[in-house]
From TrEMBL, chain B:
One GO BP annotation of this record: transmembrane transport
Keyword RNA-binding included in the entry's annotation: no
Organism for this UniProt entry: Tropicimonas sediminicola
Cross-referenced InterPro entries: MetI-like (IPR000515), MetI-like_sf (IPR035906)
Residue intervals passing through the bilayer: 32-48, 92-110, 122-144, 150-169, 202-226, 246-268
One Pfam family hit: BPD_transp_1
PANTHER family tied to this protein: ABC TRANSPORTER PERMEASE PROTEIN, ALKANE SULFONATE ABC TRANSPORTER-RELATED, MEMBRANE SUBUNIT
Residues in ABC transmembrane type-1 domain copies: 97-270
Record-level GO cellular component terms: plasma membrane
Highest taxon above the source species: Bacteria
Protein name: NitT/TauT family transport system permease protein
Coiled coil: none
TrEMBL record, chains C, E:
Pfam families found in the cross-reference section: ABC_tran
Electron transport in keyword set: no
Annotated InterPro entries: AAA+_ATPase, ABC_transporter-like_ATP-bd, ABC_transporter-like_CS, ABC_transporter_ATP-bind, P-loop_NTPase
Name of the protein in question: NitT/TauT family transport system ATP-binding protein
Family assignment from sequence similarity: Belongs to the ABC transporter superfamily.
Superkingdom: Bacteria
GO MF terms held by the record: ATP binding; ATP hydrolysis activity
Keywords: ATP-binding, Nucleotide-binding, Transport
Protein species of origin: Tropicimonas sediminicola
ABC transporter domain boundaries: 22-253
Automatic annotation (TrEMBL), chain D:
Organism field: Tropicimonas sediminicola
Main location: membrane
Name under which the protein is recorded: NitT/TauT family transport system permease protein
Membrane topology qualifier: Multi-pass membrane protein
Subcellular location: Cell membrane
Length: 308, 281, 274, 310, 274
């Protein structure tokens, strides 16, 4: 079998259910692939791992991938299982925040490590500076990995994913009525999230191309399966979690939310989504994420063969 | 490739020269003691340059020193802002508070052998607590700004300093103490005239260990939440956005600051404990 | 300095008041491999103005006895009084000047500052301190070395500095543990003379440990010979030498007779069959 | 056991302080919860309460103070809560015969221990060899020693990702090796410094003695320097193993956070289960205690056999 | 042991072959506050089988001279040969047994193992090692203490152990730096006798530093008197005493005459005006 190493963006969780299902259900094996899944974590930059040859293929968000491309690492999107963005800003209602312009003069928690780009674009589209509290500014905190800043009111709003952190806030006993959320999708600044990326130079190699075709085909099969059997998929993820710290309820719920994000994608990148992402990123205010229109950052070369 | 070979040759030449200096009669000169490691460092940087360019290592994995230097020069404003946030506010505050508190408490508990015997073993446990576990807790207690970073530094430096000071205070030999007894010197007199001076070599040992820990503590704590400035912030986000050259520039700042801090403490140590055999030649 | 103190009259000692009185003194050290009896049944009276030498083989308890007197060690049996008080009370009254077997100077202080140490503690004024330092440095022939650090001096000079330190303040009782051990004969003779003169002038009570028989005989009004395992007193010799003692008194038959008696007492404490 | 009693007393004092601190630390969360459950709280509204000090809140809401001792997500858990969590993930797992399951801290501690021991082995070897080289060669002393110090001023967390990527590029499979390297990086320094001190401990006269015998460097090393350095070696080994443990846990974050105590801490942080963090922290402390104690026993036995007073 | 070695004949020394020859020896220490001239223009010939004592005030360079002989210090001027070789060559031939001023026993070795140290290095067999240890322990009266560690012994016993260590192997030249400093008179007398007997039996060449004039006179065939600042030789006294020396030879006029000459030489090196 051909060996493939997959680097995930984050720790083992239902966000990556499709790949674990494909592995567990033998879809990779059917395609004669021997896949190793490397979970991510804080401090793991999938882009760096793939550059260092630690993985053949990686799951990454498009803003980070495009930024890496501009830094001279030619990543190419070969498939895009996630159609919509799950990122949002979650705020306390009792702070009086009702619409985006109310964010002015507040303290906001944001994820960095390459995940800050959509937020920055959004703020610049609103004309809000991120250099500290001011009439047209916000105080930005680099949020850690948990939702404590919101619960302890060190921040008025924090970044959450529809499928993960939001539910942790709810699990902490907060009722949804106490919160107000702004989905990036609704604000028109959605950027593409989990996509499958490889190094451009590898694509020229027909053998590698063939491997990727089979990989994408099996992975999408896994995603289909996961959408149809969310609870079983969550259990598969749980079985693969080596930390033993994940909980069943949380993963089942996460799987449910993830299914909403994958819905509408057959795995092939929709060029319109790509264009929207690029224009959002290019409008990044004074310090845009990417300074020029990228070229060759995606291809249908693989998905066309895999999905038809 | 030629650069690689050239840098290897240079490195070997520098090593040979250092050998010469080290075996020459001037080897204990202040100048020689600084020159030798500095040229070796320079040669090593050059070797690094040669390896990276010669072997074509991608700059997103390991940038060449020349790239790092260029970034360093181009980002002095950012580096300065981060230095103020992490070093001046976080690390130094924590260092001063932690070391002072440890010193004072060491002097206080030293009067009770019960407390010392009870506290020291526990101190060793606490010293083995990983900062990566303590940092998120302290960030959630003390907020995102430098206060939580200082708190992490306090926790990190407290016990090494405490243990060293307590040990130092016991370092007087029996005869030196007996002498004070024959004078019927009081506790305070014995402390000021005998035990504190005798403890100084140990106190400085603690201060030196703490000086390397302080910076690391402040940087690591920023991984668990920070304002949008600081060396730890820049390093952690820099890796994510593949600005590895900026990451290395920050590492260089950390190394320089750490070395200066360590060197400063060593220099004060030399002045204060001039009498100790280890300071004489 | 109590230079005007009552000068003890003549060599007879019995009529003067006792300063140190030990009765049936016992001292046992508890160590992890059994108890060590360092002193057993020690009875001794030292009168005001006495110069008492202690002599005996290594490990016989000389140092231990001096330490008991200075309240640095507590006897496990028997009684000891100093000026009618317990040694500890006397210590708190700052009755002692103690010269240890090793110099024990503080390395972070210069020689002058080392000598000033007791003076600072006892609250002498700046001017008094300087005056005393100058006086004792001269006494032990270390003028000009006040600003040096201990490690810059040879062993013998360090020992003299520690003697100077003990002489700098006006202790009633001087306890000296082999103070001249590391000195050559000439320096030793010189310091012996100086010490005798000081004693004569001030009327201090002196306890003095030595390994040298001539030194003990030359200096003392009373020689205590000790023997080891357990440490006890085997002989107490009252010196019949006059108070005025030029160096060449050491060639008189009287001197040699006393030295002989000490040597015999000492030999009894050794196992050699020669 | 002359130390056992004082240690217990100090521990008891710490636990008591800890207990006392729980009330003020958790009062806000407790009041938030009580308010959501419909209780009357003074003042009403979490935002309003932010303006009021915790002491005021405790005085005004005495009935709710106790609730701070039973929170699911406490800012500061009680010692009992931590103890229970620790028991659930260790002792109880053992009783169920699942000591090595992924949910057992014993399993994770064993993973961490493995890397720690490899890192310790690597670090001490490097440290000792470095010290031997430094003591025997002046070039090494002059050129390497300053860099050893500088190496410790570099934040290892910044290097960690690069170490992983580089070791992957060098074809090293798995995350165990980079973890051990990070652990060794923290461990080698105290050993190096301690051993340099120890190997230089012989006095000039002890060295002169061997010179009069015309002893070789080898003989000088084995008969003088090495034995003279052993007390220093053990002291630095104890610091070294604690550093190796810290290094492993630090290394477990960027190495995929798959398993080990570091991964538990991270996941506990990410999923908002503070009890898991505290339990893992305590487990790390206990592990460190056990390792240091083992070395301490080894030290006593060795030094006793060498006849040194301890 | 070379018990069957040629026994040196009589007290005359001039006809025997020179072992150590120093010509115009200079040694200056460079210290941070200036140079210290420890030896200046030292000329000395020591013949095979000589017993040479060095005496002089503290800091006059006695230790330094011994260290130069043993190649532990390198002269900054002049020449010195040992058996016609440089001291360093002689050292490599393992010509020296050295007793240092401080005992310098290795604390992690028992007394017996300390004594075995040179034997291990010089490749003696196990059996030979045990035999030698037993012999020298008896010589210094430490039988039964072989299994003890140094810190379990009193200072005097430690010093004897270090003497035993130097005597355990068959060094041609024995250098002893104040070996009997911390011992009381009786033990000292005893060891003096033992040392003389050993020297007589083996014909070793011995360099011996002491502060005691009687000891120097009693032991030596040649007494070197030194004076400090800078260290130089002020007198070399060839002893006229017979080789056979009972302890009571110390009361003979001949002995006292030599002692007197040494004392005068010594006094000249001091600044006292008495
Ligand atoms: N702290 C101690 N613990 C145990 N034993 C001790 C202690 N101090 C002294 N001893 C023992 O008590 C005895 C007397 O010791 P002391 O120091 O009084 O002898 P000394 O007569 O002064 O000998 P030296 O002439 O060598 O100075 C010795 O056998 C010694 O081993
Ligand atoms: N390593 C050194 N560096 C500088 N000066 C030294 C050194 N060793 C000895 N000296 C100086 O050389 C002189 C001679 O010292 P040495 O040790 O030979 O004297 P000594 O005659 O043995 O004295 P003592 O009787 O005190 O042992 C002294 O003035 C001493 O200070
Ligand atoms: C240092 C660091 N901070 C935040 C993220 C954010 N992040 C990326 S994917 C993901 C999934 C949500 O569960 C989250 C939170 C990260 N990767 N690394
Ligand atoms: Mg004594
Ligand atoms: Mg000497």
């Amino acid at each position: 079998a051909d060996e493939v190493t997959l680097q995930l963006k984050w720790v083992t969780q239902a966000q990556f259910a499709g790949y674990y299902v494909a592995l567990d259900q033998g879809f990779y094996e059917e395609e004669d692939l021997d896949v190793t899944i490397l979970p991510g974590g804080p401090d793991i930059a999938p882009t760096q791992v793939i550059a260092g040859g630690g993985a053949d293929v990686t799951i990454e968000w498009m803003p980070a991938a495009l930024a890496a491309r501009e830094k001279g690492l030619p990543l190419v999107n070969i498939a895009q299982p996630f159609k919509s963005s799950g990122m949002m800003l979650t705020c306390w209602k009792d702070t009086g925040i009702e619409e985006p312009m109310d964010l002015v003069n507040r303290t906001l928690g944001v994820w960095f490590f390459g995940n800050e780009f959509p937020f920055m674009s959004w703020m610049s589209s609103l004309g809000i500076s991120t250099d500290g509290k001011a009439e047209m500014g916000v105080e930005v905190l680099k949020q850690g990995f948990n939702v404590d800043p919101l619960l302890q009111r060190q921040a008025d709003c924090i970044s959450t994913m529809t499928y993960n952190e939001y539910w942790q806030v709810i699990d902490a006993g907060v009722s949804p009525d106490e919160l107000i959320t702004f989905k990036y999708e609704d604000q028109g600044v959605a950027t593409l999230e989990d996509g499958i990326y490889v190094l451009e130079e590898n694509l020229a190699d027909p053998e590698f191309e063939d491997k990727m075709v089979r990989f994408v085909r099996a992975s999408m099969k896994g995603w289909k399966w996961a959408e149809e059997n969310p609870d079983d998929a969550a259990m598969i993820v749980l079985d693969n979690d080596e930390t033993g710290a994940q909980t069943e309820t949380h993963q089942k719920r996460m799987m449910g939310e993830i299914a909403k994000l994958t819905a509408g994608s057959n795995g092939a990148l929709d060029p319109a989504d790509y264009e929207r992402t690029v224009s959002t990123l290019l409008s990044g205010g004074s310090d845009p994420v990417i300074s020029q229109e990228p070229e060759g950052a995606w291809t249908h070369q693989i998905s066309d063969k895999a999905l038809n | 490739m030629t650069l690689l070979i050239f840098s290897v040759v240079i490195w070997c030449a520098v090593w040979a020269m250092n050998r010469q200096i080290a075996n020459s009669p001037d080897r204990d000169d202040r100048a020689a003691r600084i020159f030798v490691p500095v040229v070796l460092g320079g040669a090593t940087l050059f070797l690094w340059e040669g390896l990276v360019t010669g072997l074509g290592v991608s700059p997103v994995i390991l940038p060449a020193p020349s790239d790092i230097a260029a970034t360093f020069a181009a980002s002095t404003a950012i580096l300065w802002e981060d230095f103020v946030q992490t070093v001046l506010k976080g690390a130094l505050t924590g260092y001063v508070i932690g070391c002072t508190a440890a010193f004072v408490i060491a002097v206080l508990i030293d009067r009770s052998s019960f407390l010392t015997r009870g506290l020291l073993p526990i101190g060793n446990f606490v010293a083995a607590l990983p900062i990566v576990g303590i940092a998120p807790i302290l960030v959630s207690w003390f907020g995102f700004d430098w206060q939580s970073k200082a708190a992490v530094v306090v926790v990190m430096v407290f016990f090494p300093m405490l243990v060293n000071t307590v040990q130092g205070l016991r370092e007087t030999d029996a005869m030196q103490r007996d002498l004070m007894r024959t004078y019927a010197a009081g506790y305070l007199q014995t402390l000021v005239k005998l035990r504190l001076p005798a403890a100084m070599p140990f106190v400085f040992n603690g201060l030196k260990i703490a000086s390397t820990l302080a910076l690391i503590g402040a940087i690591v704590a920023e991984y668990f939440g920070s304002p949008t400035r600081g060396m730890g912030f820049r390093i952690s986000t820099g890796v994510g956005s593949l600005s590895i050259d900026l990451v290395w520039a920050e590492i260089a700042v950390a190394a320089i600051v750490g070395t200066l801090l360590y060197g400063g403490v060593s220099w004060i140590e030399k002045v204060v404990t001039f009498w100790h055999p280890s300071q004489r030649r | 300095m109590e230079t005007d103190s009552v000068r003890p009259s003549g060599a007879g000692t019995s009529q003067r008041s006792p300063v140190i009185e030990a009765r049936k003194l016992d001292l046992t050290f508890q160590t992890n491999d059994g108890a060590v009896q360092a002193l057993r049944d020690v009875n001794l009276t030292i009168n005001k103005g006495d110069f008492v030498s202690f002599i005996g083989p290594s490990g016989c308890g000389k140092t231990t006895f001096l330490r008991v007197v200075a309240a640095l060690e507590h006897p496990t049996g028997g009684q000891i009084t100093v000026n009618g008080m317990s040694p500890d009370e006397a210590r708190r009254k700052r009755a002692y000047g103690y010269v240890f077997q090793a110099a024990g100077l503080y390395p972070w202080r210069t020689i002058a500052k080392n000598i000033k140490l007791p003076l600072e503690i006892m609250g002498y004024s700046r001017a008094q301190q300087d005056e005393q330092v100058a006086r004792v440095l001269k006494l032990v022939d270390l003028e000009g070395f006040g600003a040096k650090y201990p490690w810059q001096l040879s062993g013998g000079m360090q020992q003299r500095a520690s003697i100077a330190r003990a002489l700098a303040f006006d202790a009633e009782i001087l306890l000296m543990d082999e103070p001249f051990g590391a000195l050559d004969e000439i320096v030793r003779d010189h310091l012996n003379e100086q010490l005798l003169a000081l004693w004569d002038r001030t009327g201090k009570t002196i306890g003095f440990v030595t390994h040298s028989i001539p030194e003990a005989v030359y200096l003392s009004t009373k020689i205590v010979v000790m023997s080891p395992r357990p440490g006890r007193i085997t002989d107490v010799i009252e010196s019949t030498l006059p108070r005025e003692r030029p160096l060449d008194i050491r060639d008189t038959p009287e001197f040699l007779a006393i030295a002989h008696r000490v040597r015999e007492g000492l030999r009894a404490g050794h196992a050699y069959d020669d | 056991m002359k130390t056992a009693f004082p240690v217990l007393v100090v521990l008891a004092a710490i636990v008591a302080l800890w207990y006392a601190a729980v009330a003020p630390m958790n009062i806000r969360t407790a009041l938030d919860q009580a308010e959501r459950a419909g209780a009357a709280v003074e003042p009403a509204g979490a935002r309003e309460r932010l303006e009021v000090s915790v002491w005021r809140l405790m005085i005004d809401n005495p009935d709710h103070v106790s609730e701070g001792y039973a929170l699911d997500r406490p800012r500061l858990p009680t010692p009992v809560q931590v103890g229970e969590e620790l028991w659930k993930t260790t002792g109880e797992m053992v009783l169920k015969g699942r000591a090595m399951s992924k949910r057992s801290l014993i399993y994770h501690a064993s993973i961490t221990l493995q890397s720690t021991l490899w890192g310790f082995l690597l670090g001490t070897t490097l440290g000792i060899l470095g010290a031997v080289a430094i003591v025997h060669s002046r070039v090494m002393d002059m050129s390497v020693m300053p860099w050893a110090i500088i190496s410790q001023t570099i934040p290892i967390v910044a290097l960690a990702p690069m170490i992983i990527v580089l070791s992957a590029q060098l074809g090293i499979e798995g995350r165990g090796v980079p973890k051990a390297i990070i652990s060794a990086y923290l461990c080698y320094f105290p050993v190096l410094v301690g051993m340099v001190k120890g190997l230089r401990a012989p006095t000039a006269s002890q060295l002169d003695l061997l010179r009069t015998y015309n002893a070789s460097q080898r003989e000088t090393f084995f008969k003088l320097r090495l034995p003279a350095s052993l007390p220093y070696l053990f002291t630095s080994l104890k610091i070294g193993i604690a550093s190796a443990l810290v290094g492993t846990i630090v290394g477990e974050l960027p190495t995929g956070a798959i398993s080990g105590l570091g991964a538990r801490i991270l996941i506990g942080d990410q999923f908002g289960t503070p009890l898991a963090i505290w339990a893992a922290l305590l487990a790390a402390a206990i592990l460190a205690g056990v390792l240091v104690t083992l070395l301490d026993i080894l030290q006593r036995v060795t030094l006793k056999r060498m006849g040194m007073p301890t």
